[in-house]
Amino acid sequence: MSFIREGELTFIERFFANILKAGPMPKHVAFIMDGNRRYAQKCHVERQEGHSQGFEKLAETLRWCLNLGIREVTVYAFSIENFKRSKEEVDGLMDLARQKFSRLLEEQENWKKHGVCIRVLGDLHLLPVDIQELIARAVQATRSYNKCFLNVCFAYTSRHEICNAVREMAWGVEQGLLEPSDVSESLLEKCLYTSNSPDPDLLIRTSGEVRLSDFLLWQTSHSCLVFQSVLWPEYSFWNLCEAILRYQMNSSALQKARASYMDERKRQQMAKDQAYVRKKLQQEGTASHEDPVHQQNLLQQYTAMREERIQAFLQALEQKRVDFLDRLCTASA
Question: Strand runs (DSSP E) across the chain, as ranges?
Fold first, then answer.
């Protein structure tokens, strides 16, 4: 069976999908796939079988998303906190990861056909080396595809991600790529694991839990959050449609809030740049601080230099991440 299941929606599903598409559709949906263990308990099967059924449900959900025109999906596959579970369960989850990432590699033609780029977001160093190598091969094999994106958060928590972003900025300063004054909300956002993705429009959590469990805390500040009681392995096309309808009901307010936030962030950056220029003019100790043309030129020069530094830093950061994956691929060859 293909990881992205082939096949079209039923007539009724297509009919309802077309109705949904008349309204604003989320471009990026995130899932907290919760309820696998409770499903196993409910069905009187081993926990491992519950997790396996959860992965199969992901394959089906990806097909629904593709048919609905949702081109980016992010899933919470394994939290760093999950390492605290019993050794038996953690080992079982690692074995399942080996199976699934191996299957991804076996189905490269299918990923190419759909143009799916796979990204694995998290601290890969925490994983067994063989799984790191499988992940690196899957990511590198699909990195050039851009029709749709599957982001798998594995060995991930949001607080760990934010701390890592701060460390990356500190590395940039240490390397002389950044000035301390370059550090900002905007730059931190570009250092997150999710920097290549837009923020989710819609986040869905199953199983009835109404918390984010340290998932995409930064990225979902202006997302529609939908909590559904269904256990993840029992998730249906109609559950997804319900969540999208709730997004559509709140879409306008969410877009306004996001636009307002971005405008305020730009205003704050401009104020920060202007404060730097005023300080520079005062240091010059000349009448130039009264010349508006000189002030504007200095502001433009400073802004251009800052942007140049940031772009050089981000390119170096991306190259560092690519080199890490390349080394893993080489080790597994």
Answer: 28-32, 72-79, 116-121, 148-156, 202-205, 224-227
Tell me what pLDDT residue 4 has: 55
| Per-run averaged pLDDT (10 residues), the chain, 333 residues | 60 91 96 96 93 92 93 97 94 93 88 91 97 95 94 98 98 96 95 97 97 97 97 97 97 96 94 85 65 83 94 97 94 75
Domain ranges in the chain are 11-268
Residue pointed to by tokens 């899932």: 31
The alpha carbons of the chain give a radius of gyration, in whole angstroms, of: 23
Q: Specify which residues 226 forms β-bridges with.
A: 204
The whole-model pTM stands at 0.92
Amino acid letter, residue 22: A
Domain 11-268 has CATH 3.40.1180.10: yes
58 vs 30: CA distance, rounded Å = 12
| 171: amino acid identity, one letter | W
Joined together, the tokens standing for residue 4 give 């992205």
- Specify whether the CB–CB gap between 29 and 201 falls below 8 A: yes
* Phi, psi dihedral angles at 78 (to 5 degrees): -155, 115
